[in-house]
């Protein structure tokens, strides 16, 4: 098996934005299994809090949660040793804007949030020109529903204008810890980081072919973010286009209620298999490899269901062979 | 046709009243329980100025009335009959983090007054906002309130007042659990349901079994073994998962009904689900009718081998329940 093994890919992820913007809240919900109402008690981030998160077998996310208080920002930007340390070798910059901040006025060229942001992307461009930038306009729940779209549009275009060399590649999302938008944005972010996606999708497509499944979605085990998905022709017609982030949200919330039930606080509140049978569809969520779960949607009927269970075992083997999904790295758990 | 009771006159729906001082949390409770409002959103609720009537359509139809705290209902000029006539249960919401002496006085006055003209009303006191009490005092405060209300009622000449007490908070499952108990006190067939659920628990190695109203997630009966709030919470969140997944994937595909036996069989199925291996337990759910689902926690980590036996027993229960509900 060793010959399949690939070197671990380490990606540095910078999480930046003004103090109180919601960086640590997001990080705790996505990676540490907090739920939205738990994050009110998080302390302010002092300096940089770095954490490493293994996402799939061979992708290591090294997340730098950078405290947004003025003094720290000054030092990342102006102390040259600090500046190089923070901004070099970056894979992704996630910049969090607080939509309610009074210093984020899109009409004002000197709005402080935008000035700081443009200094930061400039430092990034000098040290890591290949990095990808995602800007999150956060706490959208505080904006009245009817205005959200317009607010996001205005804020996004102001951000884009200040993005320097990243102007064409930057992607912006509106987010809130109180709904699924958080999972949508983070799903897109990690999707952009995953190596050999095409091989993974190949295996899943084969599985769709064999099992008559409408849809197969692959989730990362701990975050339940969508790694990728494949659909049949029927699956394509599903009218709920936001279902991936919805599913992440649903299952993450449920995992947190499992932890309340068991009174444990570890980040791995597993379940074995979830099965649903209705008159319109059958659905299975089951562990595929040690670090992924697959959600499979099937037409109603008992035969299809059993047949798929069997094929799932076969696919499991294929995935284990695939570098990046190898079980080795998880043995210690 | 689905085993739902159709009451002849809508006025005869059992009525529940939410009463209490201003800002005690009545509207928050009815919004969280019946309108799925997120608890933190209640911060923006404005004072209620008129009686707000909600109805809960389920196996039995309930009305829930939210009574503004600012009105004096004991005033002579008030048409008490139109509000209190035909009430099944009254819930007094008492803010435990406030200075609660005034609330206790008003509560006692109200019960004493209503007892005379409407002796059939059952009373519950929700000792509310317990989440904001420091953990060290919580039990003391709950005990203090319970004691004072009981003493005051006793002093007023009510020796065995039909009053139950529940600590509640909209930030946890407590409010749903408490509401469930109030609703259960209005269900005449409760003992029958409980006996049926006890049988299931014993024969299928379940830790706990609930009969849920799927929409409100109030449980209308459970087996009679003791259980933690967290057990109810897990089952209730499990329903959310099933409801949400069914919404995302339950769209009409327009599959042809070829009239085959297979197609017929499928259309007659009731929805079912399980989750295996939740820290050594499994969860099981089965639709009973349009409104109700049976949800249980099994002591088996691997549910598959047990499923046939459980299905068999639950189907039997389903038949009996349908009969009981029809007779209503
Ligand atoms: N901490 C905490 N606050 C709560 C809880 N329930 C309600 N509140 C808050 O209490 C405040 C008043 O709630 P309302 O529901 O408007 O009170 P009300 O009883 O309907 O008041 P009136 O309409 O004036 O009679 C709101 O800010 C709620 O967010 C709870 O369980 N815990
Ligand atoms: N309304 C709202 N508040 C949020 C949201 N995300 C975070 N917050 C709150 O914002 C505050 C600061 O969050 P924190 O994550 O510590 O900010 P950081 O300094 O950027 O790490 C906390 O009180 C959070 O509860 C959101 O989406 N909506
Ligand atoms: Mg009110």
Automatic annotation (TrEMBL), chain A:
Key words of the record: GTP-binding, Nucleotide-binding
Single Gene Ontology MF annotation: GTP binding
CC terms in the record's Gene Ontology section: fungal-type vacuole membrane; Gtr1-Gtr2 GTPase complex; nucleus
Assembly and oligomerization: Component of the GSE complex.
GO biological process, one term: cellular response to starvation
Family per record: Belongs to the GTR/RAG GTP-binding protein family.
Pfam families: Gtr1_RagA
Entry protein name: GTP-binding protein
The keyword Phosphoprotein appears for this protein: no
Protein's job: GTPase involved in activation of the TORC1 signaling pathway, which promotes growth and represses autophagy in nutrient-rich conditions.
């Amino acid at each position: 098996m060793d010959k399949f093994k690939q070197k671990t890919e380490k990606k540095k992820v910078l999480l930046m934005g003004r103090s109180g913007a919601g960086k640590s809240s997001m990080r705790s919900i996505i990676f540490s299994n907090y739920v939205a109402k738990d994050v009110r008690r998080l302390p302010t981030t002092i300096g940089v809090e770095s954490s490493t998160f293994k996402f799939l077998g061979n992708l290591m996310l090294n997340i730098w949660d950078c405290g947004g208080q003025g003094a720290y920002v000054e030092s990342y930007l102006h102390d040259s040793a600090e500046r190089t340390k923070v901004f070099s070798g970056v894979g992704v910059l996630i910049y969090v804007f607080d939509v309610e901040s009074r210093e984020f006025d899109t009409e004002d060229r000197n709005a402080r949030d935008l000035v700081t942001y443009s200094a930061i992307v400039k430092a990034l461009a000098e040290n890591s020109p290949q990095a990808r930038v995602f800007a999150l306009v956060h706490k959208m729940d505080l904006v009245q529903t009817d205005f959200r779209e317009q607010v996001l549009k205005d804020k996004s275009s102001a951000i884009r204008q200040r993005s320097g060399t990243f102007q064409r590649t930057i992607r912006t999302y509106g987010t809130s810890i109180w709904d699924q938008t958080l999972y949508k944005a983070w799903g897109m972010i990690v999707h952009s980081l995953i190596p050999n996606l095409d091989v993974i999708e190949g295996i899943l497509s084969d599985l769709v072919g064999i099992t008559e499944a409408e849809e197969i979605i692959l989730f990362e085990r701990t975050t339940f973010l969508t790694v990728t998905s494949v659909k049949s022709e029927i699956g394509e017609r599903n009218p709920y286009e936001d279902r991936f982030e919805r599913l992440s949200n649903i299952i993450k919330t449920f995992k947190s209620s499992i932890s309340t039930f068991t009174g444990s606080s570890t980040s791995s509140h597993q379940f074995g298999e979830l099965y649903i049978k209705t008159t319109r569809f059958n659905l299975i969520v089951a562990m595929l490899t040690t670090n992924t779960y697959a959600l499979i949607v099937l037409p109603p009927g008992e035969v299809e269901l059993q047949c798929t269970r069997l094929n799932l075992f076969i696919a499991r083997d294929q995935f284990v062979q695939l570098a990046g999904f190898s079980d080795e790295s998880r043995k210690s758990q | 046709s689905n085993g739902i009771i159709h009451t002849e006159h809508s006025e005869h729906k059992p009525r529940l009243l939410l009463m209490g001082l201003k800002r005690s949390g009545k509207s928050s409770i009815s919004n969280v329980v019946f309108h799925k409002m997120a608890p933190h959103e209640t911060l923006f609720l404005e004072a209620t100025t008129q009686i707000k009537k909600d109805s809960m359509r389920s196996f039995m139809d309930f009305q829930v009335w939210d009574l503004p705290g600012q009105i004096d209902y004991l005033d002579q000029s008030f048409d008490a009959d139109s509000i209190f006539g035909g009430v099944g249960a009254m819930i007094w919401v008492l803010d435990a983090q406030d200075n609660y002496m005034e609330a206790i006085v008003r509560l006692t006055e109200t019960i004493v007054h209503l007892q005379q003209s409407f002796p059939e009303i059952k009373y519950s006191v929700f000792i509310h906002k317990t989440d904001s009490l420091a953990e060290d005092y919580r039990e003391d405060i709950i005990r203090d309130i319970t004691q004072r209300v009981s003493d005051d009622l006793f002093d007023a000449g009510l020796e065995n007042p039909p009053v139950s007490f529940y600590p509640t908070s909209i930030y946890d499952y407590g409010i749903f659990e408490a509401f469930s108990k109030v609703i259960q006190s209005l269900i005449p067939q409760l003992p029958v349901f409980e006996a049926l659920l006890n049988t299931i628990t014993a024969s299928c190695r379940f830790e706990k079994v609930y009969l849920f109203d799927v929409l409100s997630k109030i449980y209308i009966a459970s087996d009679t073994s003791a259980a933690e709030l967290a057990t109810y919470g897990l089952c209730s969140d499990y329903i959310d998962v099933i409801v949400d997944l069914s919404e995302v994937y339950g769209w009409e595909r327009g599959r042809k009904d070829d009239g085959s036996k297979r197609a017929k069989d499928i259309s007659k199925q009731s929805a079912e689900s399980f989750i295996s291996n939740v820290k050594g337990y499994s969860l099981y759910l089965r639709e009973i009718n349009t409104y109700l689902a049976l949800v249980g926690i099994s002591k088996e980590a691997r549910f598959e081998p047990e499923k046939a036996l459980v299905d068999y027993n639950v189907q039997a229960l389903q038949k009996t329940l349908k009969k009981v509900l029809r007779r209503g």
